[in-house]
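Onboarding guide, step 5: your first structure request.
Type a short instruction followed by the sequence, for example:

Predict the 3D structure of this protein.
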Amino acid sequence: MSKAILLLASLLLGAASCSSSEIPTGHERPTVGSLFDSEVPPQEVDIRNYTILSNQVAGGGAISAEQVATLPSKGYTTIINLRFEHEDGVKEEMAAADAAGLTYVSIPVSGSDFTLGHAKRVSDAIAASPGHVLFHCASGGRVTAVWALTRAIEEGLSPEEAARVANEEGCRPIPEPMVHRVVTELQAAR
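The system replies with structure tokens like these:
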């Protein structure tokens, strides 16, 4: 919980320090600070490495079908899953999301093949969600890496800044090769 309070404080301080030229006018795509924002942060879900990533997005590890059924009562409207359909519990999760009336977005990636294209799909799914989003994989590692790329896309982060996000602001520490992939994906796009 203290991590969530620190994140909220840093988001508020960051928003307070924005210049008027950084604030969207409505004609350009909003940044993470506004795109992934709501007045109330997501309610906690008891999953491995649960972390509030923004006021709209929470991330973490695998979720059970029983837990999926509770998400609408907590304000969640969308699940973004980075796991493959053959991974344990994914088919049950998909069925539970459908039964609960949740939007279910499947963007399967491994820890070594995620791309800016995957991050763009995540960004689009978050932007389309009318409520909170649960963004997850098995442990939170893939979420951490793809979240860093998503933030880079939305905020125009440099490869080095995105690496810092991957190292410090995700669901859990990730291996150096995953952080390196975040950097190389951004460098290749330049």
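Each response can be followed by summary notes, for example: The two ends are 37 Å apart (CA to CA).
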